[in-house]
């Protein structure tokens, strides 16, 4: 596991009675405002003791138990977005209120602690685009995100009014988000809806899972083309949870081809020449924040996914 700590403040205090019975990682997250993943990593790295004993992240805490923890140093302010040109990032549309991009693989939406690769925001800054200042410092102008390994259409707000309107549209689920995904096997039924809550994976930091009590998550899928070993689906999202399509397809036992983190077959991925999940955000439709007119932006399959698709057709 990659360490989370550049060591910061050492804290010693009793566990509040109100947290009695919680898992240690959950209690740490509540007490210090940490993410569950960061709290679990602190325990795994030996930065936490309870009543002088080195615990496990899943141990249940007792109200009044004495807790010692070495908290991580606060991350650098995320306002220093490094303007960095990104090869392959295409501008699909640009006006006074929004800029729509076709995001290539290997690019994050915005800077994040521990991530040092290229970002959409950094690429736009390098190209001289003015982005809305609304939102958290590291994600100003960002109203939705795509995974680093997922390609496709993404809109960024340039004006403050556009940021507010688009955030509201995504929150109210009035934005139509369409994906193409190649999944292993053949879902049954061939058209359906997955309505299953998603939260952080209880045992695998950085991943997500269908978890009782997680955030409501709804995915619609429809078969577009069937192959011997896989299916091409068109997917629509009602919600926008992190890794939502990948988690829901894996929960159906039909993970995205190439998505090794969520159980895909590495042999099939190798035969298709895939180095990431076959998942592409091919269409985004919404009401333009300036005047309410409906707009739609699309992106063709990128070369690596198109090549894998042709190999599948040849194999079938």
TrEMBL record:
Q: What does the record give as the active site? A: 147
Q: Which PROSITE patterns match?
A: PSI_RLU (PS01129), S4 (PS50889)
Cross-referenced Gene3D superfamilies, in alphabetical order?
Pseudouridine synthase, RNA-binding S4 domain
The organism's superkingdom is given as Bacteria
Alphabetical GO biological process terms: enzyme-directed rRNA pseudouridine synthesis
> What's a single GO MF annotation on this record?
RNA binding
The record's listing under Pfam families reads: PseudoU_synth_2, S4
**Keyword annotations of the record:** Isomerase, RNA-binding
Q: Identify the residues that the record assigns to the RNA-binding S4 domain, covering every copy.
A: 23-65
**Where does the Pseudouridine synthase RsuA/RluA-like domain lie?**
97-251
What the entry lists under SUPFAM superfamilies is as follows: Alpha-L RNA-binding motif, Pseudouridine synthase
User: What sort of enzyme, by top EC class, is this?
Assistant: isomerase
Q: What EC designation does it have? A: 5.4.99.-
- Reaction(s) catalysed by this chain's protein: a uridine in RNA = a pseudouridine in RNA
What family is reported? Answer: Belongs to the pseudouridine synthase RluA family.
Q: What does this protein do?
A: Responsible for synthesis of pseudouridine from uracil.
This protein's name: Pseudouridine synthase
Q: Supply the source organism for this entry.
A: Frankia nepalensis
């Amino acid at each position: 596991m990659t360490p989370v700590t550049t060591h910061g403040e050492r804290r010693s205090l009793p566990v509040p009675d109100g947290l009695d019975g919680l898992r240690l990682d959950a209690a740490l997250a509540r007490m210090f405002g940490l993410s569950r993943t960061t709290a679990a990593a602190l325990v795994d790295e030996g930065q936490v003791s309870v009543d002088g004993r080195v615990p496990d992240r899943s141990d249940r805490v007792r109200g009044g138990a004495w807790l010692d923890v070495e908290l991580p140093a606060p991350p650098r302010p995320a306002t220093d977005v490094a303007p960095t040109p990104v090869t392959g990032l295409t501008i699909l549309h640009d006006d006074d209120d929004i800029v729509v991009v076709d995001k290539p693989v290997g690019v994050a939406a915005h800077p994040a602690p521990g991530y040092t690769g290229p970002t959409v925001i950094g690429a736009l800054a390098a190209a001289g685009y003015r982005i809305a200042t609304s939102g958290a410092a590291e994600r100003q102008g960002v109203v939705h995100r795509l995974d680093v390994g997922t390609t496709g259409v993404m809109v960024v707000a340039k004006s403050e009014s556009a940021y507010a309107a688009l955030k509201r549209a995504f929150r109210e689920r009035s934005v139509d988000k369409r994906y193409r995904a190649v999944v292993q096997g053949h879902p049954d039924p061939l058209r359906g809806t997955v309505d299953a809550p998603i939260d952080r994976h209880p045992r695998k930091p950085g991943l997500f899972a269908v978890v009782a009590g997680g955030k409501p998550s709804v995915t619609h899928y429809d078969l577009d083309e069937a192959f011997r070993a896989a299916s091409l689906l068109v997917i629509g999202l009602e919600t926008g949870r992190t890794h939502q399509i990948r988690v829901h397809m894996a929960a159906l036992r039909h993970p995205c081809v190439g998505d090794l983190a969520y159980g895909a077959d590495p042999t099939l991925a190798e035969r298709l020449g895939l180095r990431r999940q076959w998942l592409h955000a091919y269409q985004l439709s919404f009401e333009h924040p300036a005047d309410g007119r409906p707009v739609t932006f699309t992106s063709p399959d990128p070369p690596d996914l198109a090549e894998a698709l042709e190999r599948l057709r040849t194999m079938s």
